[in-house]
Amino acid sequence: MNFLKNIIVIVFLSGALVSKPIIIKLATVAPEGTEYYNLLLEMGQRWQEETNGQVQLRIYPNGVVGGEIDTIRKMRIGQIQASAMSSIGLARLTDSIQAFTLPMGFKDYNEVDRVKDAMFDDIHDELSDSGFELLFLVDIGWVYWFSSDEITVPQDLKDSKIFTSAGDYVTVELFKKFGFNAIPMSETDILTGLQTGMINSMQTVPILAASSGWSALMPNMLDLKWGAFIGAVIIDNKVWSKIKPEHKKAMMIVAKDIGRKYQKNGREMEIKAIDAMEQ
Fold this sequence. Notes:
Blueprint: H1 2-17, E1 22-28, H2 35-50, E2 55-60, H3 68-76, E3 82-86, H4 87-90, H5 109-129, E4 132-147, H6 154-158, E5 161-165, H7 169-177, E6 181-185, H8 190-196, E7 201-204, H9 206-211, H10 214-217, E8 220-236, H11 237-240, H12 245-278
Parallel strand pairs: 1-2, 1-3, 5-6
Antiparallel strand pairs: 3-8, 4-7, 4-8
Helix pairs in contact: 2-12
């Protein structure tokens, strides 16, 4: 009888020592099947391996959670714990990210890298103050103007209907101040907006224009590097603080490796995407 009791106690204690896995729900507007999505998938698989299944990543692609502003709101209330987002969403959490949105502010990737290195700590700290941990910050290609009608002079752009992210009131007011027609809407409504004619031009990167189908409705790309497209993966500090220190260290190493791949592939895919759209 005592032997049986000891077995029961051992089994009970063993079960108590096995903690419940931490589930991290990550939102992204990147379409499923793209290289961006596949790299996030790899990151989740490696996190699970490095933490012996104690941290598991679930990815919600295609903007099913909503646009980046929607994602931030849902992270605040705990529905989503992490996000892969661009400067559109990051600008709501850190003013320093605006350094990368200056029109024609960079001439090559070396300049982008220098500014990114110089400002990383400021961006990290401002995100931390906003309640988020920065896992990696990368540039993934150049932003160009895409449009349904050819744009060759500023007046052509003034005559077009320009997509701007819903909630980005600063950009909307700047466009309007200089005589441009800015149409705010969620990133998830861009395709519908193009199909209905609500918008007919926007700033974006070739890989997204090609993979999302936007380029079919905006077949003109202005060959002018308008700005650097910045991407980052962030996680809610409330969840991050619950992860064991040794697991966080391993996860950060994986995240930085994925970030390097993100950047390398983003820069390379830009050329391939432009070639594909031209064909």
